[in-house]
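Quick one, T. Sequence first:
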Amino acid sequence: MKSLKIIFLVVLFQTNIFSQQPAKREMRAAWISTVDNIDWPSKPGLSDKEMKTEMITILDNLRSYNLNTVVFQIRPTADAYYKSTKEPASHWITGKQGVAPGFDPLQLMIDEAGKRGMSVHVWLNPYRVQKDTTNEVLSKNHLFFKKPELFLTYGKTRYFNPGYKETRDFVASVVGEIVRNYNIQAIHMDDYFYPYKIAGQEFPDQAAFAKEPRQFKDKDDWRRDNVDLIIKQIRDTIITNKPDVEFGISPFGVWRNIAKDSQGSNTVAGATNYDDLYANILKWQKENWIDYVTPQLYWHIGFDRANFEVLAKWWAAHKYGANVYIGHGVYKLSKTAKEVEWRSPDQIVKQIEMIRTMPMIDGSMHFTATNFLKKGDTLRKPLMEKQYKYIALTPEANRITRVKPQPPVNASIAQKGGTAVLTWKAGVNNQKYVIYRFPKSKITDFSNPENIYYVTTATKLEVPNANLQQYTYAITALSNTQTESSPIQF
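Structure tokens:
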């Protein structure tokens, strides 16, 4: 009889998967920025307890918005928010580079986010080493003091020299260590490849160009190839170590202006990826080097120089098989914003509504996490009324080979007072669990997110004020590629 019930649920699961309902899968992420203590921790030198409390507060708040992913900055300046054998602990944690807290921040983030059903993408900056050289913070065991020839200074910022193979090898080795040691969903990099140009100052890489020019005579083409090489090497490193980990890039919102390239967007941006940051994002997408792209579209709908709508459509049309998520500038929301469009959360609501009409776009990432905390119900209320009313699962990456999980086993339910206690055991390839709740004896539609009650990495869930005469519960498992198993009923 139990096997018949499982077969019935599988048929129902497959039959309803294409029904017209709100999106069951949609990226809903927030960046958690650590550089300059933007999001976490709020300042250097807090106690371990204070830092842990702050992290949990951020995660609880993001969970209250039904977000499903955090993008945690773990290497802002060639330093570490994790246990590293290659780089020192960040000075933005304890106040002194090389002095680690009494816990592993990345592991705590993975554990606590997982309990709340959230995936973790780890965010690394490939070249930036020291944000402001007027304030000496590097620990004496930093690679800078061992191999100073690999580094250069531009403006007030110190960087790895992108022109050297040894730079690429080192950064790739950092990525390999992270991928091997932590259960993460993705490696993530943003727009900081070659730095934004400083007027009147040439980036000082002539010596590297003279030493390792490869076949190039044009320095701009050589610079783009330097970035191409590190992206390809990082991709290969991930595949070698853990091929189910995704690789995503969050570039500046404009690849090229149409005035420079007929393939470019109808924009007049002052800087572009290709011409100024030497990041040829479209090549990486075409070559299958990245799994997703999240352009930072931090402009409002209708902005004359870089219109959000124009750019969202452009990136959707230039997908090339990668997942496309849109980066939203939640940080710009303010009652006193210079641009009137940012004085109300309606701008973010309209942007989400707009991209949902574009089938080639797979969701959103928001900059940054503490803005959700600061805005409170001002932002939560409009989003939770419609856009994020129900839980959504994260999308599967188009380019990652699916890992099919088995359903969890030994699912059982018990009533303890007014609380229902759901327990189960892990099956094969189980990473997270999706708990569904239906009206009693009316298991209807597993594709409808209205029926998702909770997502978690735990194997136990307490449901307060539960009435088992009123509801029926079922559960599926998600693998590390976010692939869902067939369901079983409690």
